[in-house]
From TrEMBL:
This is arginine--tRNA ligase. InterPro entries: Arg-tRNA-ligase, Arg-tRNA-synth_N_sf, ArgRS_core, DALR_anticod-bd, Rossmann-like_a/b/a_fold, tRNAsynth_Ia_anticodon-bd. Its EC number is 6.1.1.19. GO terms for biological process: arginyl-tRNA aminoacylation; mitochondrial translation. GO terms for molecular function: arginine-tRNA ligase activity; ATP binding. Residues 1045-1159 form the DALR anticodon binding domain. It catalyses: tRNA(Arg) + L-arginine + ATP = L-arginyl-tRNA(Arg) + AMP + diphosphate. Belongs to the class-I aminoacyl-tRNA synthetase family.
Length: 1162
């Protein structure tokens, strides 16, 4: 789905740009516009005199850094920052003045060679003579950076007014020379912002901060946006940060991670994946500091100091020309446009937060692996492969490293929370209400960044919870080990003592404490009123810190899952025991906790979270969420309980029949699709989901492919949740591009070729006519750039042929419609066949051509009645800036020749679809490049008074696929992608070792593996994350790939071939499923409803892929163990494990089909 080729070039897909052609339009007066809007006074040449020059001119002779930083209060913390900066820049002046040879033996080399800088100047009439162009700035070394910064943003013949000017500076791993280069050239009005940048960067240890303030330190008044974001990341010894801010003081903290590497006792197992060997790794601290300061939306500077030593692919490399702004990872802009400084800063914040979360998740991954190994070694008493010194080093270093990362993550999350609530002041309307932020309500890029920042804040808090879980798991292991050692010592003492007084001794303080907690717990559980026909168990495991684990279950002997629920179940809003078996355990535990600590029932329920971390139990009680007064959360966590395990015996009795009863519906709540959930047989909500939507006679682009994959998942999950789903493919089959295709057909069309391969031939024709049209198009663009009239150009040649034919189409002239219909029919037929190979079907092939004249007239009349339609250059358009939507700019609805625009046709299509389908929700699955378009659609509907329709529309966006393997690079049609996938699978299978095969090499198998690789690799990534298609990451039979997932499913099928076809769950030997591997598999199966609901809430298929990978890992381990056992004479146990595997297969299948993947079959 694409814009007409001739629509205004004002829809940047990454961020909304502000054009200088519309910058002077009137907006509601708000504080930002009053102080820093576009109507502020132009900047003068004297405003660009550096602060250091001014300081020297008045005779102040102190050092450069103290002189620059002098204005802040005389406080010890400030003085330490100044001292750090001075020490850091000690050798900087030498590096700026002298060439330093790249000789490793040269002690001064490090001061000159390390930093790399990127600069972009955007000016309305000035280009920095030092640069090689605005959009392609070569990376700079120290001296080049100094030379660039010294150039003023005006020429020698300029008037006193400085032209519109913005500058963006990115310095990777700055050293003293680069900092001095900055300080010496900072204009006085911007000095206060630079001081905050340096103060944040040189604070040790670093402290997170986020702010937007105004500063009157130096007239004219300026704004300062400053973000200081500390983090930790995994690095290597070779990429360690060795910078100093004193003779013996490192600028950044770092920790060797050699201690994480612990050897397993079994020599037959690989102790540590070579890719994660920790004996060469370090935990490296870093800081991302960004400052944006200026006097208006047109005059501002952004400077970013970023630590990225540890990155394999750093943002800025030597001798590199960048088209991408490394601060926001977005292509550089033309000098005719500028970012809103606030939107720019928010996007930079969004991008860096996502990276920090990924860094911290990676740290968590390494720590968790090591902790799991440590626990395993200690529990098995298998320290033989590790020296006592190594174990002691682990015990000393692990909590220190964990604490450092936890503190960093939690501090950042807290600062971000305060920034969102107190600075941005985001309200329930999802809009900005902060004094200096509220003018951004109409800026689409800022609103999009805001939504993502809020989501990232949630992710950051979740990461913090994971670290907290890791801490609890560590402390549990530590106390368990101490208890075992104490038990051994006591046993030795008791064995050697004969004094009878020992036996009569009073219990110690800790023992009394344990008994007290035990009595409280038993009292709480005894409050349950359970049926006499039910058995009840409560088990307690004590540790030395008085924490304990509670396991309880209710079951009826010999009956199925429904009879397990005879005990009256506490009722909690939000608990769904019918569709989510985990909620059965939640409500019982919540009731227990409520009675134990006497808190509100709903508070108790909300304090219970699920855990998917080994050793952390099945449910975790988050003590602070209980909101108990005068009770410290950490003490409560110790005195109450830390983790809850489900009894494996109870779990198998409950879960296996539960899954079997629900079969393909397990995991899903169909009541979510009901208009009235209280009426189970009542009408369903209707979803209209539009996806894929390729253009007629154009390439099937990777964006269309990703739309197809994501749209299939969205349709599937809504259908499984009870919605009535209509899948629509909205073809780009109307518009001026069809008129150009018709002109090409007259010149290059061949009936013979069209009969053989209609769609491919139309594509060839389109390529030829586009090449022929290109000179006219370039001429028109050049004329527009010179602000000259293009009417004469567009009235001749292919422009005229195209427009005349399209006008005939709009007038429904039979000859033109017949040509168009022939092209459309061939397109639909070809795509229908290709989609069938992909396993995708559509309920409706619609298109722009289907939009009715009546709905177009209805839209235009409503716009006229509301006074929204404007006439400009003989075209009819909407000026969104007049309607509190600044970022949406101007949008054409009808061109000067009377033809309709893409926006007008889409608005009319909304009306047509609602009249036909009466949908409750309509989702467009379209690339994020068209986000502005859909904001225009919804905003226009609101302006027309159709808020009811605007609220039903949702744009589900996604990022680009950045790279394709050779087999797919030449793909032009969907069938080409599918053929390429088959070819890559065949190559991959030929390279695999036969012993890894559970699938076969048949044509059907190759097809299944290829499609699974395509779907899984896409859904593995979050929608708004770009990725490159990598055959090794999608088609290998090992690892986190679609092919590996199918291979595991095939192995499971083969295992089930030798088992019974049906099961009596009432007579199964459930006790045989209590071993660790079976219990863990049961726990994972229990969690599928949570995974499905999380995916449904966010429309992120990655939830399901992560869940599938957990199933695969556990099934592989369990099947491996099974294959090594002798099952002779164990018929009852064998039947129970087959029942477990059959239910695992069912959940496995449910998850695959939800993603659009057909499970492997022979």
């Amino acid at each position: 789905m694409d814009e007409d080729s001739t629509t205004p070039d004002d829809m940047d897909g990454a961020l909304v740009l502000r054009s200088h052609d519309t910058i002077e339009q009137c907006y509601e007066l708000k504080e930002w516009e009053r102080r820093f809007g576009t109507n502020t006074m132009p900047k003068l040449r004297k405003d660009y005199k550096s602060l250091i020059e001014i300081v020297r001119s008045v005779g102040i002779e102190s050092g450069e850094i103290p002189s620059f930083m002098f204005s802040s209060p005389n406080m010890p913390s400030w003085e330490r920052r100044v001292s750090n900066a001075e020490s850091f820049c000690e050798h900087g002046d030498f590096a700026l003045q002298h060439f330093v040879p790249a000789d490793e033996s040269n002690s001064r080399r490090a001061y000159a060679q390390e930093p790399r800088a990127w600069i972009s100047d955007n000016s309305s009439s000035f280009q920095n003579p030092v640069s090689s162009g605005v959009n392609k700035i070569r990376t700079l070394n120290n001296t080049e950076l100094k030379d660039f910064l010294q150039v003023k943003p005006f020429g020698p013949d300029a008037t006193d007014d400085v032209p519109v000017h913005t500058r963006r500076v990115y310095i990777s791993n700055p050293n003293g020379a680069s900092i001095l280069a900055l300080i010496r050239t900072v204009p006085a009005p911007q000095a206060d912002g630079f001081r905050k940048l340096l103060a944040g960067y040189f604070t040790t240890p670093p402290v997170p901060s986020l702010m937007l303030i105004d500063s009157d330190w130096w007239p004219p008044a300026s704004f300062i946006i400053a973000f200081n974001l500390p983090f930790f990341a995994i690095s290597t010894m070779e990429r360690q940060d060795h910078r100093k801010c004193g003779a013996d003081k490192n600028l950044r903290a770092s920790y060797s991670l050699e201690f994480l590497h612990l050897e397993e006792s079994s020599s037959g197992e690989e102790s540590w994946d070579n890719t994660t060997r920790s004996d060469t790794l370090v935990l490296q601290g870093g800081v991302f500091s960004l400052m944006v300061t200026g006097q208006s939306d047109e005059y501002w500077t952004a400077v970013c100091l970023n630590d990225d030593f540890f990155e394999e692919d750093q943002h800025v490399l030597d001798d590199e020309t960048l088209d991408v702004d490394p601060i926001i990872q977005i292509p550089s802009l033309s000098p005719r446009n500028s970012w809103s400084p606030r939107a720019y800063a928010l996007l930079a914040l969004e991008q860096q937060l996502e990276k920090i979360i990924e860094y911290h998740e990676d740290v968590h991954h390494h720590l968790k692996i090591s902790l799991d190994r440590y626990v395993s070694i200690v529990q098995q008493d298998a320290i033989t492969n590790n020296s006592p010194k190594r174990i002691q080093e682990w015990r000393r270093s692990f909590p220190e490293v964990l604490s450092s990362v936890m503190n960093s993550s939690s501090s950042l999350a807290l600062q971000l929370h305060d920034f969102i609530l107190e600075d941005l002041r985001v309200g329930q309307d999802e809009a900005f209400h902060g004094i200096l932020w509220q003018g951004l309500q109409g800026d689409i890029s800022a609103l999009r960044s805001l939504r993502k920042i809020k989501g990232l804040h949630s992710r950051l808090r979740t990461t913090g919870v994971h670290f907290e879980h890791l801490k609890i798991a560590y402390e549990t292991a530590k106390h368990g080990e101490e208890s075992r050692r104490e038990a051994v010592r006591n046993e030795d003492v008791q064995r050697g003592e004969t004094d009878t007084e020992t036996n009569n001794a009073q219990p110690g303080k800790e023992q009394n404490k344990d008994n007290t907690v035990l009595r409280i717990a038993i009292a709480a559980f005894s409050a349950f009123q359970h049926s006499p026909s039910c058995d009840y168990e409560a088990t307690r495991t004590l540790t030395s810190d008085s924490s304990f684990t509670l396991q309880h279950h209710y079951y009826h002997r010999g009956y199925g899952s429904d009879n397990l629920l005879y005990t009256p179940i506490p009722e909690y809003p939000g608990a769904d025991i019918v569709h989510n078996p985990q909620d059965i355990f939640r409500v019982y535990l919540a009731d227990t906790i409520q009675k134990l600590v006497n808190c509100d029932r709903l508070v108790a329920y909300d304090a219970i979270q699920t855990s998917n971390i080994t050793g952390m139990g099945d449910l975790v009680i988050v003590a602070p969420k209980l909101r108990l007064k005068d009770v410290k959360a950490d003490e409560l966590a110790k005195d109450l309980l830390q983790k809850v395990y489900f009894s494996p015996n109870t779990l198998s009795r409950l879960l296996l029949s539960y899954i079997s009863d629900r079969s393909t519906s397990y995991g899903y709540d169909t009541s979510l699709g009901l208009v009235d959930p209280s009426i189970p047989d009542g009408p369903k909500k209707k979803l209209l989901v539009e996806f894929s939507s390729p253009n007629m006679a154009s390439e099937f682009q990777v964006s269309h492919l990703r739309s197809t994959l994501i749209g299939t998942y969205i349709a599937n999950i809504h259908s499984n949740m009870g919605w009535n789903v209509v899948k629509m493919n909205y073809l780009g089959d109307w518009g001026k591009q069809i008129g150009l295709l018709a002109a090409g057909w007259q010149r290059f069309g061949s009936e013979d070729e069209f009969a053989k391969q209609p769609l491919r031939h139309l594509l060839e024709v389109n390529h030829k006519i586009q090449d022929l049209f290109k000179p006219e198009l370039e001429e028109c663009k050049a004329t527009k750039a010179n602000k000259q009239d293009v009417t004469e150009i567009e009235s001749r040649g292919l422009y005229a042929e195209r427009d005349i034919f399209f006008k005939k189409m709009e007038d429904r002239e039979p000859e033109a419609i017949a040509v168009w219909q022939r092209f459309r029919d061939a397109t639909v037929k070809d795509y229908t066949e290709s989609y069938a190979q992909l396993g995708v079907t559509f309920d409706e092939y619609s298109g722009e051509s289907q939009v009715t004249a009546e709905s177009i007239a209805e839209v235009e009349q409503a716009l006229k009645d509301k006074g929204i339609y404007d006439e400009h250059d003989d075209s009819l358009m909407i000026d969104f800036s007049k309607h509190d939507a600044r970022g949406l700019s101007l949008a054409v609805l009808r061109y000067r020749n009377g033809t309709t625009s893409y926006l007008l046709r889409d608005l009319a299509a909304v009306f047509d679809r609602y009249k036909k389908h009466q949908f409750d929700k309509m989702i467009y699955v379209v690339a994020m490049e068209q986000e502005m378009h859909f904001h225009r659609v919804t905003k226009t509907l609101e302006l027309m008074g159709r808020q009811d329709l605007a609220e039903r529309i949702q744009h589900v966006s996604f990022a680009k696929i950045n790279g394709l393997p050779e087999d797919l690079k030449g793909a032009e049609l969907l069938s080409d992608y599918l053929g390429g996938c088959r070819s890559m699978v065949q190559t991959s299978l030929d390279e695999e070792e036969e012993e890894t095969f559970h699938v076969d090499k048949s044509e059907k198998s190759v097809e299944q593996l290829g499609l699974a690789g395509l779907f899984i690799q896409d859904h593995y990534h979050k929608r708004n994350t770009s990725y490159a298609v990598d055959p090794k990451k999608s088609l290998s039979l090992e690892g986190e790939t679609g092919a590996a997932i199918q291979n595991c499913y095939a192995r499971l099928l083969k295992k089930l071939e030798s088992g019974p076809g049906s099961f009596d769950y009432a007579t199964l030997d459930h006790t045989s499923l209590e071993t660790e591997d079976y219990a863990e598999l049961l726990r994972i199966l229990l969690q599928y409803p949570d995974a499905a609901h999380g995916s449904f809430r966010t429309l992120e298929p990655s939830f399901i892929v992560v869940y599938l990978l957990r199933i695969v890992d556990q099934l592989t381990a369990t099947l491996d163990d099974d294959d090594e056992k002798d099952w002779a004479g164990l018929d009852a146990a064998s039947e129970a494990r087959y029942a477990l595997y059959e239910n695992a297969r069912q959940v496995f299948e449910n998850a695959l089909r939800l993603l659009g993947v057909s499970p492997w079959s022979p």
